[in-house]
Amino acid sequence: MEFFTNQNIIFYLLAYLIGSIPFGLILAKTFAGVDIKSQGSKSIGATNVLRVVKEKDPKLAKKLGIATVILDALKGTILLIIGLYLNLSYETLWAMAVLSVLGHCYSIYLGLEGGKGVATGLGVYIVLIPYATLIGAIVWIVCAKVLKISSLSSLLGLIAAVISATFIYDGLNVGSNVPMYLIAFIILYKHIPNIIRIVKGEEKKVI
């Protein structure tokens, strides 16, 4: 029973379980009556919420898309802020960050399926590497405005954040950049189909 009363273990479990909550799926079903897991890219992220709900109600689609981004980011952010308040070690915080992103990408509630991890990754990065994340967010927003390709903009923002963090931070308070790279790898891995479509010039724009 000590396993389940250990503070770190409790936070690891919470990080994964909260990260697994499919807010995009819940919002689309509740407010638009659509199942995004069976339409569009079948992802639970904001882009698919926007794309699928837009066919039914463009104004609602935008609101739900924004709400999905915020909630997916917060499920990575809030628990880390609590952890900081409780003076958890940075090793524990980074492990929680990785588990939050894994939860979103491989949700226990969806048979280990999920989203691409961008918003949740943003949520954990903003707490642990804030300056680099702001740089990445600016790159993401600018690229989204210019390119209008969500996946490519997200990946460019991610790369900008990781490269910036490599120069700004020294070991991420844990003596290694590995946790940050691991989160980036998970997100990149989930985007492999998008990357293939980008290379082929087949990736759809979000208009």
Automatic annotation (TrEMBL):
It is found in: Cell membrane. It is an enzyme of class 2 (transferase). InterPro entries: G3P_acylTferase_PlsY (IPR003811). The chain crosses the membrane at residues 9-28, 64-86, 93-112, 124-143, 155-172, 178-199. GO terms for biological process: phospholipid biosynthetic process. The keyword Ribosomal protein does not apply. Keywords: Cell membrane, Lipid biosynthesis, Lipid metabolism, Membrane, Phospholipid biosynthesis, Phospholipid metabolism, Transferase, Transmembrane, Transmembrane helix. This is Glycerol-3-phosphate acyltransferase. It comes from Aliarcobacter vitoriensis. The gene is plsY.
